[in-house]
Every structure is written in C-alpha cells, then in structure tokens.
Give the backbone structure.
Amino acid sequence: MLPALQHLLVLQDRDRRLTRIQAELTAVPGQRLYLKNKASKTTTDFDTAKRQSQLVESDRKRLELEVDTLKERINKVRAQQNDTRSNEQYRAYQHQIATSQTEISNLEDQQLELMEKADGCARELALATKQLAETKAETSRYLADLDARGAKLEAELEVAETARDLAAEPLDDAVLHRYENLLKTKGDPAIVGVHGGVCGGCHMQLTTQAMVSTRGQAEITPCPTCSRILYWTSEMV
C-alpha cells in the first residue's frame, strides 16, 4: 500500500478516537445538568408535599380555634341565660346557643375531612422525604462519577491529540489538507476501501480507470462520485 495511504488510515483512526473522546466529554455537562434537574424536581416535589401538609395542619388548627371560640361563646350565653328573667331574652339566648352548636357541628365535620386529608398528606410527605434522600445520595454518587469520568476523558483527550499530531506529521501538507477538507465536506470516513468494485463511502460502482489506479497504488485515487480517497488491499475482492 502507498505509504501516504497507510499514514492516512492511521490518521483517520486517530481522528475517530479523538472525535469519540470529544463527544463523550461534550456530553458530560449535559449529563450533569440532567442529574441536577432531576434532584431539583425531587426537592420541589418534597417542598410541595411539605407545604401542603403545613397548610392542612394550619387549617385544622384554625378550625380547632374556631370551635373553642364558639364553645366559650356558648358558655357565656348560657351564663347570661341563667341570669335573665325575661322569657323573650331567654329564647334569644337559646337561639344563639343553637346557632353556635350548628356552627360547631359544621366545623367538626370539616375537621374530620381535614384529618383524612392530613393522613394523605402525611403519606405523600413521607414518600417525598424518602425519594429526596435517595435522589440526593444517587445524584451525589453519579456527580462524583461524572467528575472522575470528565477528568479521565480530559487526560485521554490530551493523549489522543498528541497521537493525532504525530500521525499527521509524515503527511505532505497538500495531502493532509485534502483529507481534512474531505472530513469537513463528507464526514467520516474520508478514506474508504473498495469492495466488489464499489466505493466504500458512497457505494457507487467505480470506473475501470479508478479501479486500476487504486489497485496500482502508485498515487492517491479519489472516488469519481464522492471524491473520497480510495484504498485497496489483497484481501478485498
């Protein structure tokens, strides 16, 4: 095989490794953001459950206070009722007591509803608390793994960049520019094999001249259709 082609194939392999490392490294911030957003959502769910539980408890205490106030009012009215000598006033006091007792009954019904609601809120809060603790531990562990992976990829990237530069050194500037331009316009692969007289890049049938030139290995041969650089080995049919 033409030495330039051998160097190009090595360079292409190094570029692939470099591209893979760069892609994995670029994905790290997104993965870190995903984990943080997941943890943030769990925290929000916990805060919501806690706030709802507090609201229900606040409503329950408010109703309890209202009931106590009404009971105190009934006691005062009864004391006034016992002191009155007017039948009309006595009936008025009795009406006030009955009205207050009805209000107490309604408030106690609301208290029962709130007690059931409080039980549900307590279960949701317990679940949210558990999920928050688990998510925090999981996120902390995964973020530590990501930091370690990021550091490892940074080191691998440095090695891969050096290896890539070394692979490019033996190549003529014109050949290197041609290869790099193909990467930009065609993407990977830029150097392709020939199989059954077909270009390994665009999969189009090659001309006889292109096949002869590729097998002759005397010069770098482009595919007439896609312009990718062709190579051929004896293992290829």
Observations:
- The mean pLDDT is 94.
- The chain has two domains: 13-171, 174-231.
